[in-house]
Design a protein that fits this description.
The chain is mainly α. It has a domain of 173 residues. The chain is built from 14 helices and two strands. Helix 5 packs parallel to helix 7, helix 7 runs parallel beside helix 10 and helix 7 packs antiparallel against helix 11. The radius of gyration is 27 Å and the shape is globular. The relative contact order is 0.08. The C terminus is likely disordered.
Length: 444
């Protein structure tokens, strides 16, 4: 049975960040900054409530008549209780024989073109432990993008406005950044396991390192760009944030309405139509919050029974990173043009180039991960580099190639040589043309 290390890491980040947020909020109150005090407190308590609700929902505590556990969740002690329960199951799993054992079948990731089906016995204890891992993974994602990401943005903005970075604030920002990166990493692992549920997926250490570097550069750059832009154009940051958030929020709903699929009813048996709608709204809310700061890796598809798209859409990823790079460059340009006196002792051109380079490094590590370190790269129908090259070729030929050349290329594609027909078919066409020419000459 696998050691529940992810549960321990999630709990450590949750407790350390919440404690640091409460201490920093009290420091703001003692220093006479009520606005920073209340904003820090709200950004700390709101994700705590959402984490408790997610743990209760995944473990279905409402229908299991567990009043003590529900009370501990109300006291914001749910993650601690769940972690103790997970380690209790882990250390007592082999001592008592499990009477309920199920057999799962998974396929190995193909090696040298060969794949083998593996049968594995899964006991009741391992199923419970797997539920705990899944619950903490989802709780880490919620904590990261609905709590840590706004908190990091707020604290960095305070540092710039006050032109001071204290030790407590720097430690808190480092914890928040680690929490966001870890949540993005868990989101990547969840996406892999959902899309390749039929395979025995094992993520190796190089893959974790690539994901960590990719997400670190991407999230740090995105937060810094938003804070710099908001420090000089405070009013215009609200349209930018609202356009990003509502664009990603309504995107799954627009796809659902266009597909004309029936409303999903199998999310939870006890849920009514109103309850299902609330769950879907919360899911798309989280999806929009993730995409505000980084690529979500999990694409919400409401028409699918699992609510997650299992197809690998390289073009959508390429479009996301292209538009995000252009947006970051535009926001940095506006900051550079309208910068105030607080940046008097900062080399703004160098900072501008460093941030763009950091985002390029994030894209580089993302390409390395999908090209070399992805655990299921042998199952891809096409690699991401091929998709990028095809996109760039398409854009290049659309801009450079004249209309006549495009028509000539289309005609060349339709010839039998390019469509893969046999040489005998081309000979038949030539013979038919020769016969027609001879008959025309004889008639003349």
């Amino acid at each position: 049975m696998k050691f529940p290390g992810s549960v321990l890491v999630s709990l450590a980040l949750f407790l350390s960040e919440t404690t640091a947020a409460l201490c920093l909020s009290a420091a703001y109150r003692a220093a006479g900054d009520p606005m920073w005090h209340w904003l820090t407190l709200v950004c700390a308590l709101l994700p705590c409530v959402l984490v408790q609700l997610s743990l209760v929902f995944i473990h279905r505590d409402v229908t299991r008549d567990r009043p003590l556990v529900l009370l501990l969740h109300l006291l914001q002690l749910g993650p601690l209780v769940r972690c103790v329960e997970a380690f209790y199951i882990y250390y007592h799993a082999g001592r008592i024989e499990d009477p309920y054992v199920s057999i799962t079948k998974k396929w190995q990731v193909p090696k040298d073109g060969y794949s083998e089906e593996i049968e594995k016995e899964v006991g009741q204890a391992e199923c419970k432990l797997r539920t705990h891992r899944s619950a903490f993974s989802r709780a880490s994602v919620i904590q990261a993008f609905l709590g840590s990401a706004p908190q990091l943005t707020l604290q960095l903005y305070i540092c710039i406005m006050q032109q001071e970075i204290t030790a407590a604030r720097s430690i808190f920002m480092l914890l928040s950044l680690l929490s966001i990166v870890y949540g993005a990493l868990r989101c990547n692992i969840l996406a892999i396991k959902i899309k390749y549920d039929d395979y025995d997926v094992r993520v190796k250490p190089p893959a974790y390192i690539c994901i960590f570097l990719w997400r670190s550069f991407e999230i740090a750059t995105r937060v810094t760009v938003l804070v710099l832009f908001s420090s000089v154009l405070r009013i215009w940051i609200f349209p930018v944030v609202m356009a990003n958030f509502f664009g990603f929020y309504f995107f799954p709903w627009i796809l659902f309405w266009r597909s004309r699929s029936p409303f999903p009813e199998n999310i939870e048996k006890e849920f009514s139509r109103v309850g299902t709608t609330i769950v879907l709204c919360l899911l798309t809310f989280l999806y929009a919050g993730i995409n505000m700061f980084c690529w979500s890796a999990v694409q919400v598809e409401i028409s699918d029974p699992d609510l997650i798209s299992k197809s690998q859409n390289w073009y959508q990823m390429t479009m996301y990173y292209t538009l995000r790079f252009m947006e970051n460059a535009f926001l940095l340009l506006m900051w550079y043009l309208y910068k105030t006196d607080i940046y008097m002792y900062v080399c703004t051109p160098l900072l501008f180039l460093r941030l763009l380079l950091s985002y390029c490094l994030a894209i580089f590590f993302m390409l390395v991960f999908y090209q070399f370190c992805h655990p299921c790269k042998k199952l891809f129908s096409s690699s991401i580099t091929e998709t990028l090259l095809s996109c760039f070729k398409f854009l290049f030929f659309m801009r450079k190639t004249p209309k006549s050349a495009v028509l000539r290329d289309e005609a060349a594609v339709k010839t039998p040589e390019n469509t893969g027909e046999a040489p005998s078919s081309s000979k038949t066409i030539d013979s038919q043309k020769r016969n027609l020419h001879q008959s025309a000459s004889s008639n003349a």
